[in-house]
Amino acid sequence: MNHEFKKLLLKIAVLPKKDQRWILSQLTAQQQKQFEQNQGNELLHKAQHFRSLAHIPLKEVVTKPQIPSLCDALKHQDSLYIAIILEQGQFNWQKEFITLLDNGDEIHELMDTQVTKIKPDTKLSLFRQWQIEHSFDEQLVMHYG
Hints:
0% strand, rod-shaped
């Protein structure tokens, strides 16, 4: 029995029972014999257990970076402050965090325009001060989830 046969059974298993019976009734005598030789009915029954798994879109399986709890305090800060912290931190959860904010577009705009005009030492100093305000555990979560 080959891999294609199993994939076909998984696709059939997703269908309602009535449709499954109709498909099997459309097989030629030779196809029915081959289906029985490959234990098709037993495998189809087993495949029905996996029917919900067969149609989970890949987008749902891929996990998004979790936003750390320390963002609850950050989201109440001034937009320019948030933009500087995000620009300096280069966090893997940055995009998800910005989409949660009501002023996300404004923060993107500030990161592209205003933050680039601020001296690097000033931005770094502000970022380090922000880091000092958080515990070591929060620091680990910030970068490594």
